[in-house]
Specification:
By secondary structure, the chain is mostly helical. It has one domain. It is about 65% helix and about 0% strand. The protein is built from 16 helices and no strands. Helix 4 packs antiparallel against helix 6 and helix 12 crosses helix 14. The two termini are about 40 Å apart. The relative contact order is 0.14.
Length: about 350
Amino acid sequence: MLGLSFVELIELFIKVLIFPGTLFSLLFSIIVIWFERKFLARMHLRIGPLHVGPFNRLGLFQPIADFLKLVQKEIITPSKANNFLYRLMPMLAAFLSALSIAFIPYALDPSGGYWVIFYTPLSLLVILVILTAKPFIMVGAGWAANNKYCTIGALRAAFQLLAYEIPIVLSLVGIVIVARSFDLAKIVEAQSSVWLIILQPIGFIVILIGMMAELLRRPFDIPLAEQEVVFGWPTEYTGVQFALVMVSEYFDLCVTASLITILFLGGWSGPAIPLLHDISPMLSGIFWFLLKMAVITVIIIMGRGVFPRLRIDQLLESGWTILIPFAIIQILITLATAQWWLPLIGG
């Protein structure tokens, strides 16, 4: 198969099926859904899920119960919907969200490479291309449903993602200048002495806010505003189709947290963890990666419990008139201070 040896084939199956592939993505989604409910409940002085699963009053299996409930529900297709596009879009949303994970390196491989499903020196560009396809899915789903709430939500999503993709790309320019590469693994290696969150603090804030808007997380959940458009572009979806839409959201959260960890927090770099490092240095690197990723995930989730939803005019104005100038300022600062930060990364 593709000229791989038996050991390489086993390693590929582990990467695809266990980590960082299918099993890890699903476990991340399940754990984060449960954690988000409990965490926000504590912030709002509510209770959160309690009864489903082991350990008294934790509700650990509530996300699994919800998924099983959705799988058993009837799939209802609106009578005037475009059947082909309407049924295709949830599958495409989940597929594209999961596809991005294939290009993210999570640790150094013992063989000298990287623990990634598919390595390419243009991994950052590939993930950006995949992320820019998401608005087309939302618009396609909103149009195919032939429902005014779906259409309005889809158009809101298109306006929002366009307004926030540009500052994200501009902020990534500063990172590429520093690391001199589009390779996510090389970007991590460029932070062996100092993390880019120190050299690029404005870029970090712009990308964090921009990624929250890309995820449609509050306060940027205008395309899904329940009080205005029911649930936006996925309003008509039921059963397993709705489950795919929700899973794609948490796959995107996994990709976003992983990207920010790589771009600004040094990826897998960190002190050796004695027990894990003794077994394999790769395990120590994975520990630090997952820990940093968890911190970013909590910060993103906090936005839902702390901030009120923005209006569409406020959101678009912030993207075009605030984040884009800040991203350009970060590029100019990066170029102006190159003589000081180049020695820090061995340049």
